[in-house]
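Worked example 2:
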Amino acid sequence: MKFLVDAQLPVRLARFLQNAGHDAIHTRDLPNQNATPDAVVNFISIQEERIVITKDSDFVQSFLLQNQPYKLLLITTGNIKNSDLESLFENHLEQLTELLESYGYIELNSSKVVIYQ
């Protein structure tokens, strides 16, 4: 599965996904790094069929109104330690990847995965 991790999430998350066997990049890997505009993130996501992982609710509006990005994984944990975020992904990664095969917009919070149709 291909992911694009947005700026407000740690690079460590992209590297975790890579180590789990996924094709993952972080906005810091892009030419404009964390200053990459949302429109460019959406374009890359669609062009490369990458799932955007973000905390930014602007992507929710974009997904609902314009069907961009390609797919969306919204993180709504609030501020947590990077190690806790990584543990959350470790615990839910298999479920998330299965759900993202069928659904375009999923939310991950501290206690559960929420599917939006």
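The mean pLDDT is 96. The chain has one domain: 2-116.
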